[in-house]
Amino acid sequence: MQPRLEVAKEKKLVGKRMKMSLAENKTFELWRSFMPDRTKIANKRSDEFISMKVYDEPLQLQNPAQEFDKWAAIEVSDFSKAPEGMETFILPSGLYAIFDYKGLNTDSSIFIYIFTEWLPNSNYELDDRPHFEVLGEKYKNNDPQSEEEIWIPVRLKQ
């Protein structure tokens, strides 16, 4: 599976975040908290959801206890009407490898492929920016026919 490469423009996001790790995954709890309040978000740029991971230090692939902030968010045109109980985040622009994924969101094999096969054999290395998935109209939670885009921050190898 080959990704497409794209320079993403800066995005303004509104949503909720929660500190977690792969070993202590709280994704269900995060989205359960976010979904009832999603309709309060004004100035939406689309109906797509953004599931984002923000690492305090570069991703350590062999450390499932590494903590990160996971976000459940929506892109907005501005922050003027961010609802109470939600936070704002500016996702910086940059180069991304985008993988179109079809399958269960609990299947980690796509990430194993990206980080152990595609990335080491490409002309790119991981960049220190947020990782995210775009959950659009073809996304269906816990459905093997679900589709999403996986955006991995990259830069040319030094």
Detailed description of the structure:
The mean pLDDT is 93. Helices cover 11% and strands 41% of the residues. The longest helix has 10 residues, at 109-118. The two termini are 24 Å apart. It is built from 2 helices and 9 strands.
Please describe the topology of this protein:
Layout: E1 4-8, E2 11-21, H1 27-34, E3 49-55, E4 67-76, E5 87-91, E6 94-102, H2 109-118, E7 124-126, E8 131-135, E9 147-156
Antiparallel strand pairs: 1-6, 2-4, 2-5, 3-4, 3-8, 6-9, 7-9, 8-9
The geometry reads as globular
> Percent range for helical residues?
10-25%
Number of β-strand runs: 9
Give the termini distance in whole angstroms.
Answer: 24 Å
Share of residues in strands: 35-45%
Q: Report Rg.
A: 15 Å
Structural class: mainly beta
Low-pLDDT parts are: none
How confident is the prediction overall: mean pLDDT? 93
Largest sheet: 9 strands, antiparallel
Q: Strand-and-helix sequence, N→C? A: EEHEEEEHEEE
Please give the count of helices.
2
